[in-house]
Amino acid sequence: MPTPPHSSDSMRSLPTLQHSLRAFASSPRTFQILCTLPHPLPTLQTPLKTLYILDSSFNPPTRAHLRICTSALLNDKPSAVPKRLLLLLATQNADKAPKPAAFEQRLAMMSYFAEELVKDVSGSEEGMHDDGDLIVDVGVTKEARFIDKARVLEEQEVYSHQGPVEQVHLTGYDTLIRLLDTRYYPPDHTLKPLEELFEKHRVRVTRRTDDAWGGRDEQEEYVRKIADGQREAEGGKKEWVERIELVEGRKEGEEIISSTKVREAAKGRDEQALKKLVTDGVANWILQERLYLEED
């Protein structure tokens, strides 16, 4: 049996997190929730209908992650409360020393991020103002592929005990490209393995504004080609576009945020720059723990 989720306070104890990660690695489980906010969890009166998932390396969690989450929670199609968000960290390479921040350090930062996300959403005009309107989980998985993570989450009674739950995967445009890349689906190397995902769930894609991924027109054209049937030879289906939503990312004039910029600010011990890129709790933890001072 998995251990009950920690409180956010115990998620700042690195020995506790190391113990939890070792126990998870040696168990047959492929998913575990390590922390849930609010804690303890209030009694839920309404069955969960939608689970939002942000799957990232969180190295570290940034204000770009915050923007993706708050945008989905506040602006996605209307759904009954509670809304539930899972911050998911994959540990499939746990036998290798993760760089540049260890998994337990990332999980500690994720717990600060989760607390600040709840405050951010609750404090907004469109926000949820009652305890239990928003539930945030911090979890780990051994699965590497998108479709396998979705399948494992479908099997979790904590989410589905009152009926089927739609998953909304919060991604960047670069992740959408990887999701629809046939290289990841051996042995046939077609998109057929994605059929079940798009029948049941959705993907909410934040546009990337950097040159590497093209501009708005190029990104919309990529999705339009799916709608036009140009991926059918690979096993893609036109109707998948109804389950893919492109949303705006960084607005004009807003700070450009990347994990590289965060690490540079941390290495320079530039607290002011750091707090523009990550939330205050995450910034304070990075400085306290002296993270990212040496890049590998």
Can you put this structure into words, describing what you see?
There is one protein chain. The chain has 296 residues and is an alpha/beta fold. The protein has one domain (10-255): Rossmann fold (3-Layer(aba) Sandwich). Helix content is 37%, strand content 15%. The chain has 11 helices and 7 strands. The chain has helices at 14-25, 63-75, 103-123, 146-154, 157-160, 173-179, 195-200, 216-227, 259-267, 271-277, 280-289, and strands at residues 31-37, 50-55, 83-90, 134-141, 166-172, 202-206, 244-247. Strands 1-4-3-2-5-6-7 form a 7-stranded mixed sheet. Helix 8 (216-227) links the parallel strand 6 (202-206) and strand 7 (244-247). Helix 2 packs across helix 3 and helix 9 (259-267) packs antiparallel against helix 10 (271-277). The longest helix is centred in the middle third of the chain and has 21 residues, at 103-123. 35% of the residues are buried. The model has no long low-confidence stretch (mean pLDDT 89). Keywords: ATP-binding, NAD, Nucleotide-binding, Nucleotidyltransferase, Pyridine nucleotide biosynthesis, Transferase. One of its GO terms (molecular function) is ATP hydrolysis activity. InterPro entries: NadD/NMNAT (IPR005248), Rossmann-like_a/b/a_fold (IPR014729). One of its GO terms (biological process) is NAD+ biosynthetic process.
